[in-house]
Automatic annotation (TrEMBL):
<protein>
    <submittedName>
        <fullName>LacI family transcriptional regulator</fullName>
    </submittedName>
</protein>
<keyword id="KW-0805">Transcription regulation</keyword>
<dbReference type="InterPro" id="IPR001761">
    <property type="entry name" value="Peripla_BP/Lac1_sug-bd_dom"/>
</dbReference>
<keyword id="KW-0804">Transcription</keyword>
<dbReference type="Pfam" id="PF00532">
    <property type="entry name" value="Peripla_BP_1"/>
</dbReference>
<dbReference type="GO" id="GO:0000976">
    <property type="term" value="F:transcription cis-regulatory region binding"/>
</dbReference>
<dbReference type="InterPro" id="IPR001387">
    <property type="entry name" value="Cro/C1-type_HTH"/>
</dbReference>
<feature type="domain" description="HTH cro/C1-type">
    <location>
        <begin position="3"/>
        <end position="54"/>
    </location>
</feature>
<dbReference type="Pfam" id="PF00356">
    <property type="entry name" value="LacI"/>
</dbReference>
<feature type="domain" description="HTH lacI-type">
    <location>
        <begin position="6"/>
        <end position="60"/>
    </location>
</feature>
<dbReference type="GO" id="GO:0003700">
    <property type="term" value="F:DNA-binding transcription factor activity"/>
</dbReference>
<dbReference type="InterPro" id="IPR000843">
    <property type="entry name" value="HTH_LacI"/>
</dbReference>
<keyword id="KW-0238">DNA-binding</keyword>
<dbReference type="InterPro" id="IPR028082">
    <property type="entry name" value="Peripla_BP_I"/>
</dbReference>
<dbReference type="InterPro" id="IPR010982">
    <property type="entry name" value="Lambda_DNA-bd_dom_sf"/>
</dbReference>
């Protein structure tokens, strides 16, 4: 049988003093004598008294808790962002509740509702791929709860955001592939409404145009999701099509790995026949054969900046302002796209 939680009222009855005296003694209020404070705190410790966080939140209007919603908790990028958010939150004396939408719009809404019901003092969010309407997020804003979006964001909401310089990073990826001799470069992307897809496609198109290369519509491939199987299936079809690519840029590492598996299955050489580049610097990308070239988005910086933007709003709401922080990216060239030795 579960033991009933000890309350302030229980402590007061055992010591034959008022509830208010116990409450103030537990807070080490100097208005209460040192002896009484010590007696109350000693009994509270012996009986295992713990403050009710919901009751405290109702009284103080602060829960000292923030909520974080990510599309995938197993992702190296998102898990690293969350770890950094937790470090920053801890330095402010805050706890972090983390949930995953699993790329589901309905799950994302449910997670947000739970955080609001638990009176989280702020929310940090990266959108699920299936999120196309934003009433549930506007509801956070309407209730006055501080909010920061990161990585997967939308221009439809006037909130603080932390994003990678996706367009510039994609531009540099495609220019790297072109300098390696690629001329027919495919891009594996996702749904049109997602900011990361839009921005990385924008960088791809600019690099192709600046280099005077033709952009074939059938080399812009939209996959059902960002997974290895979806990308592999798409690339197998692409390699049997009219315009066979000599390089493939996946807008995340899983898509690049799916491309790698498809190219190997077709008996083509990487990078000699088809060069491949990913995005996000996942652990998996390092250990593939060949290792997958990718983009380092500096998730530690993303997490730190997202948390700092949120705590600006929580701790100083009158002076906090809405702004977008852009984190510069770094190219990591590995075996899957390194054609430098072919030039020797």
């Amino acid at each position: 049988m579960t033991q009933k939680a000890i309350t302030i009222k229980d402590l007061a009855e055992k010591l034959n003093i008022s509830v208010s005296t116990v409450s103030r003694a537990l807070k080490d209020n100097p208005e209460i004598s040192q002896q009484t404070r010590e007696v109350v705190q000693k009994l509270a410790k012996e009986l295992g008294y713990k403050p009710n966080p919901i009751a405290v939140a109702l009284k103080t209007r602060k829960s000292n808790t923030i909520g974080v919603v990510v599309p995938q908790i197993v992702s190296t990028f998102f898990s690293t962002v969350v770890k950094k958010i937790e470090e920053v939150a801890d330095s402010y004396g805050y706890n972090v509740l983390v949930s995953s939408s699993n790329e589901s719009f309905e799950k994302e809404k449910k997670n947000i509702d739970i955080f609001l019901a638990n009176r989280c003092d702020g929310i940090i969010l990266s959108l699920a791929k299936s999120t196309t309407s934003f009433e549930h997020i506007q509801n956070i804003i309407n209730t006055g709860v501080p909010l920061v979006l990161f990585d997967r964001t939308t221009k439809e909401l006037n909130v603080s955001k932390v994003v990678a310089d996706d367009a510039d990073a994609a531009y540099r990826v495609v220019m790297h592939l072109i300098h390696g001799g690629a001329r027919k470069i495919a891009i594996l992307t996702g749904a049109e409404h997602l900011s990361i897809g839009k921005n990385r496609l924008k960088g791809y198109k600019k690099a192709m145009t600046d280099s005077g290369l033709e952009i074939y519509p059938d080399l812009i491939v939209r996959c059902d999701d960002f997974s290895v199987p979806a990308a592999k299936e798409a690339v197998l079809k692409l390699l049997d099509s009219e315009h066979v690519p000599d390089a493939i840029f996946g807008i995340n590492d899983d898509m690049a790995i799916g491309a790698l598996e498809a190219v190997k299955e077709k008996g083509l050489r990487i990078p000699e026949d088809v060069a491949i580049f990913g995005f996000s610097n996942s652990k998996r990308s390092r250990y593939m054969t060949p290792s997958v070239s990718t983009i380092n988005q500096f998730p530690e910086k993303v997490g730190e900046k997202a948390a700092e933007l949120l705590f600006e709003q929580i701790l100083d709401p009158r002076h906090a302002r809405i702004r977008e922080e852009v984190i510069n990216c770094e190219l990591i060239v590995r075996e899957s796209s390194d054609r430098s030795y072919l030039e020797k």
